[in-house]
Specification:
alpha+beta, 5-stranded mixed β-sheet, 3 helices, 36% strand
Amino acid sequence: MKKLVAVCFSILMFWVVSVSADLNHNHHSTNPTVIGKPGDPANVTRMIEIKTMDNRFLPSKINVKQGETIRFLVKNEGMRRHEMVIDTMENLKKHAKMMRSNPGFISDDPNYVDMLPGEQKELVWHFTESGIVNFACGYPGHFKQMRGKIYVEMK
C-alpha cells in the first residue's frame, strides 16, 4: 500500500510540475510588437498613477500616444495582494488560469508588478504601436473584474 501511495504521489507531482512549467512558458510569450516593450526610465515622457483596490483599477481606462514611455506608479490601496500585468488579452487569460493553480507565483517580467496591501511599485513601459493594450490582475477571483485598457493613439 505504501508503494502505491508513493507511486501515485510521484505521478501527481510530475503532472503538477509539467503543467506549471507549460503555463509559465506560455506566460512569457508576450508579443512586444503588439503591446510595446519595457521602457527606459531615463526616457519617461510622463507618469500615470494607478490605484489598485479590491477588484478594480483606478483608472481602468488610460490614453497614451504611440512612442510615449510611461512610468506607471501603481499603488495597492486594497486589503489584498494585487498585481498589474500589461499584455494581450490572450496572454492575460493564460496568466490568470496559471494563477488559479499557482497563486503564489511572482514574476520578474518587465510587464509585471506585484504589490502587498499598502505597497507601491513602478512599471516603465514604451508604447511602440497604436491600438489597445490590456492590463489586469491575475490573482484568483480578481481577473474578471480587475482589468483595464490602455488606448494608444497613433502619432
